[in-house]
Structures are given as C-alpha cells and as structure tokens.
C-alpha cells in the first residue's frame, strides 16, 4: 500500500480507508482486512540449516579436486590415502564453519522494534489490543512513553513530540501536527505522520493507521535489506580467482604428465595415476583456507580487545583497504547530547565550557569565570531558561541524562554551571510550547514582583520585544544570532515582562508586546573530541571521511568544518540526490563531503555510487535508517552503545565504546592483518611449488617418487597450521598508517611475489632433487622419502624467518619480538621427531626411522634457503631503490 498519506487530507483518507475517526472500524471490516493485509509484523527470512552451512564450506574448486583425488585413491584401494585426503578436506570445512559469523539477525532486530500493544478505537470504544492485530484504517490513541505500533496519519496532536533519531537521524524530538504537507516532503519533515518503531516523548495524539507490517517505513528498510546484494571482500574475490586459476593449471598439467608417462616411460596406469594424484595434492595449497581463517580469527580477537567487534572474518582485511568512511553525524561524529556553547546578553558575550548534560564546566567572559551575583543580566537570563522549562537532568549509573526535551535539558545544565545556585521559580501559569507560535511562557513571582518569563525562537521574540527592522538593537541581536548560527548552533532567545500583581494567569495576548530581551543561547550537539583526532588520522592514512546525515545543511556543514572533515562549502540535500541520475550521483559523491536531510535510500545510493567509482567504502551508523547502507557497504560499522540492534546486525563491525577513534585502530589492525596474510601466502606457496616440482621431475626423469600423496598432504598441513601461524603474530611495520590504502584491484600475487614463489620453489625443490641420487645410493630408497619430507619441512621453517620481513634483512632488532615464531619452531621439531620415531605415525605416513647423521641434510638445506633468500632480498631491494 504505497501512498503519500502526508499529502492527503484526513477526510480523503477516511474515505479511502473506509474508516471514521470517532467510531473506528467494525468487527466485520477488521476480519476482512486482516485476511487482506495479514498480521502487523515483518516476514521472517528462512534460515539456512546448520548442516547446509557446514556443507557450503566444501564449495571450493580446490576442495573439489582434493575430493576427486580421494575417490580415485579409494577405487585404487589406497585406503589410508583416501582417509587422510578426506580428513584434510573435513578439517578445512570445520574451521570455516566454526569461524563463520552468527546467523543473520537484522530482520529480527527490526521486528523487535514494533510495539507489543496498541490502544485502538473500534466501534466507538477504546480497546487495548496486540499490535500484531492492527490493520489499515484502525484509529489509534497514543501518549508519552508509547511506541508507535504502525505508520499513522495524525488526526489530533496535543503538544505531541516524537523521538525519531533511530529512523531519521534527527537528534531532537520532532514536534507533530495535523496539516497536509507537500508531495515532495522528505521523511524527516513529515510532521503529520508517526512511524512504526519510533517513540512518543511528549504529549498525546490520535491517528489513522495507514500502513502495517512490511508496508511501513521500517518494513521498507527491512525489504531493502533483503534486496541489498552483499558483496565479496577483496580477499574472497582474489582467493576465488586464485583457486580457479590454479585448478585449471593443476588439471591441465596432470593430464599432460599422465599422457607423457604412458607414452614415454611405460608406467603402469595405476602407478601413474597415483603419481598424478600426488602432483595434484602437491600443487593444491589445501592448508591455505584454514590458515587464512585462523589469521583472520586472531585479527578478530585482537580487534575485540580494542573495542571493535568484527562479525565477519574477511571484513578484517577489508578494513585495511578502506578508502572512504561514510559517517552519520548524530551520535557518531557528535555526542547526541545537546550543549549550550555560548550566551549573549545585551552588553556581553559569554563562552560556556563542558559538554553534555553533566553540570560540570563554567560560564566564561574574556577568559575568566563569571560571578552571577554581580552580573544581574546573566542571572536574569539563566533564571528565565531554567524556570520556563519542563525538563530536568539527573545522574543515573554514573551518567547524566535528560528527563524530557534535550534542548530544555541543556538549558538546565547551563544554569547549573553558574557559580551560585539559580533558583527555578514556581510557574503560576504557563503557555506550553507549540511549533505554531514557537515559544513557551510562564507567570512567576520573584522578589515580590510578578513577571512573565519567555523563551522561544529569536525572530518571534524580537517581534514581541517590538524591535523594529533596521533598528540598532535589532541589528545587534541579529548580528550575534548570525555569528552563532555560522558555528552550527541553534538559537534560543529569552525575554521578560513585568506585570501587575493582580495577574493570576496568562494568555498569548499578554506576551505579544512589551517583552524585554534578556539574551540568546547558542546550542550545539558537540563533536566528539576523539572523532576529531580520528578524522586527522584517517586523512594521514589516505582515507576520506564523508558526513551523511538527516540533519539540516547549515548545522551539518558547520560541524563538518569544526571537525576539519571538509574544506568545501557545498552541501547536497537528499531531495537533490533523488532528482539526480546515477551518473550525476557518481560525480557528486567525489565532489562533496557533506550530505544533509538524507533518507535511508539516499545513503544506499551514495554507498553504491562510491563503490561504482572503485572506492572501498565503510559506513558508520547507529539507527534503523542506516541498516541498508551498512549492509551494502564493504564494511558496515555500527555503534555499540547507542546503536539499534538493527544497525548492529546489519553491520560487519560494532564499536563497543561508540568511539570513532576505535575505527582508526581497527583500520590499523586490518592493514597489519592483510600484510601478514600476504606474508603467509608468500610462505605457503613455495611448499606446494617445491613438491609439484619434485613430482613432475620424477615423472619426466622416470625416477622413483620422492614423496607419496599422504606425505605431501602432511607437509602441506603441518607447515600451514604450525609454522605459518607464527606470521599471524607479526607486529605492524613502521609507516603502515602513513601510506595510502591499497587499491582494490591490487593482486595478492604481485609480479615480485610470483618471482619469489617460483625462485624459492626451485631453490628448495632443486636442492632436494640434486641430492636425491646421492641419498638413494647411500641410504636406500626406503629412507629417501623420510629425508625428503624433513628437508621440505626444515627448508620452510628457515624460510619462515625470511618471510617475517618481506624485503629487508631478517636478522634485525625486531627478530626476537615475535615469540610465536620460536614457539612454533619448537613444536614443529617435536612433531618431526614424533612422526619419525613413533610407530603409529610411521605406518600412517609411510616413514622410516633415520639416524642422527641423516638429519644433517634437512638442516643444511634449510640454512641454504635462508642465506640465499636473504641475498636475493638484498639485491632486489637495491634494484627497487634505484628504480
């Protein structure tokens, strides 16, 4: 049911929905509509069963090849080989399954925002019913503290204010009214509508339900989240591409060598098939998915310790590639706590220190604290704003909170910052605030004199004070007002009028004239200090920060300038974005840093435009309105304290402390993790390369296989799960946060990496192949496989120390910094001794116990690899420096 209800009169709505504001719906109509529209709830997405989640981790082309190899060994009767190959595949799937993020709960989060009960008028009587049973056309009554149960078009509004921050991003409660609005009115300005999931903060109202369940604004967000296409992270894209590429190469090579062996060496086909399987197993880096998951999981743990909870593993490395952070303003860059920053009286300007509702800070003039005992104009102003006030601030759980309106709350805090107690006078009569006349007034008695104190919109108060256009006095106040608004501050004016002692009540006529202006207060939702520092750090790291907010453009730009987020003056509003083509949005998103009055769809449009332009985008937010963009962004970042459950469940990362600076720490960790992932790949692949080289050489030269398929699998898994694990703990390299983000197109396997992998593969494989005839002659064929296995393992162990520092000398002052490297070295040596001398493992892997003298060769080959690779790094580094 899509309709611009806010632009339609009540009478027309009653006709269209066949309802009546006094009587409501009848029983028959309710039954019919429940059958037509269903329950007032959001549809639940069917969850993937646990077994299917586990099976999905076998959905990898490299695992397919491994499983085919297992089937072939089973057919050929090599059951130990089959069991070991299948076991490796299952272990990989288990690791992936265990590290998988929790099931998607965003839809439940939105669903839980719907209120449980609603007060309706049916057949002329009030009923308290479950919100699930509401239908379009129902007449609902609402009061302060209620959660809005559906989308409602207001019929009556009595001082009604609604907290919509979670839906629109507005930091203040929205005053509601019943008048018809224009067709192009944006979501945040639809003041005659109440939206499902928002809360009544003040007053009461009556309205007609116009949308329920998935047809509500929250329902539309829910639907757009289902429709949002989740994108793959750079790491997943590259590992997928690498897997496909290597699988094609492996299968092609295996087929060629099988044909070669049949025609040129007259191998028995079963023997040749086993050799080809050995080649396939050797070339597949089956340990790589497991170690990548473990490294990412360790990154997740480190980030959790630093107050950033990652909900998906690959998102850790994506953080290191982020080029743009799209941030909501309210509660993310700002504190979502209204604060008076400045006060102006007829002859002075004051600065106010302290932020939030905590009454700590002072009122300053020319750098000194003001004594209100001698500054009577300031005292009168503070008395006015504290007295004409229905709100209060209290301390709860070591935190100061406002009871009532945030704007009024900050005025109470202002009065409490005075150096002596400001008395809140008893209101003998009052005129409540209403947006139609934009002020609140109260009749009080002070020092045996009755007076009317008033606060409200400055332009309205200026007229009440009789300030003529162009007069010196009006010019003074307008100049001060302009100065404050340019700083992003909202202005509240206060005035007083002395009246006769006979007054017992007041009305609008009593304040229309004769008021005397006491002063102005400049109010702001202050930026977080740590967010300002975080933005500086982002700029140093080459990351752009963009503000996407539901607030007004002047306020948004002032805050952005104050935080050094932008040096541009252009601000684009949501309605402008709606009128743009995709191409225009893609252009404007690069030219503008501040977007105001945005709708949920605008945020999604901007994230998509950034991604089209090749940016890796992060989106921070805390409200329901942020959820679709959080899900679509490469990294969705939700606030943990003030964030809604919807935002948290739609995101990849949750900031536990709502501290923008935590994002910078997370980016730093993301870059470290990515660097260590690259080092891990640089370490693991030469193992596969050396094994594949040995198997191919044996087939081409017609010599005995130096390793069986099971032995190859053992080497692959033991080096991946033990030695390479040490690289996950490598500390961040110097200057990492001063370099620009890596390009999304940057390949894990750069030309240098390809050279290095081939070079080390040939170095390890060539050394073993060169010594192979000598080993066969001296120790016999039965011991050669064992020596070869140890030579491969020790070569990789020494190579791990090469890889710890990619291009510089490894034996530096940080050599002993990573204790994990030495722990895994000890574990690996112990494992090698166990598989060599414990009978069960000897049989399982087909190894023989060797003498002390035979260990000489593995150790020498390992040392040779370390020295040669260090020399290669030295030469290569000098060549790069020359270029």
Please characterize this protein's 3D structure.
- It is found in: Cell membrane.
- Its main location: membrane.
- It is an enzyme of class 7 (translocase).
- It is a multi-pass membrane protein.
- This protein has 31 helices and 26 strands.
- With 883 residues, it is of the alpha+beta class.
- The strands form four sheets. It has a nine-stranded antiparallel β-sheet with strand order 13-12-11-10-20-19-18-17-16, sandwiched between helices.
Note the main attributes of this structure.
883 residues, alpha+beta, Calcium-transporting ATPase, cytoplasmic transduction domain A, 8-stranded mixed sheet, 31 helices, Cation_transp_ATPase_P-type, phosphoprotein, P-type sodium:potassium-exchanging transporter activity, translocase
Derived structural class: alpha+beta
Which of globular, elongated, flat, extended, rod-shaped describes the shape? elongated
Instruction: Figure out the total of helices.
Output: 31
Kindly estimate the percentage of residues that lie in beta strands according to DSSP: 15-25%
- Which residue ranges are poorly predicted, with pLDDT under 50 across at least 5 consecutive positions? 101-115
The level of helicity is 40-55%
Q: Which strand order do you get reading across the main beta sheet?
A: 13-12-11-10-20-19-18-17-16
Per DSSP E runs of 2 or more residues, the count of β-strands stands at 26
- Main sheet record: 9 strands, antiparallel
Second CATH tier, the architecture of the largest domain:
Up-down Bundle
CATH topology call of the largest domain: Calcium-transporting ATPase, transmembrane domain
Count structural domains: 4
Separation, N- and C-terminal Cα atoms: 65 Å
- Mean pLDDT metric: 84
Tell me the radius of gyration: 36 Å
**CATH level-4 homologous superfamily of the largest domain:** Calcium-transporting ATPase, transmembrane domain
CATH class of the largest domain: Mainly Alpha
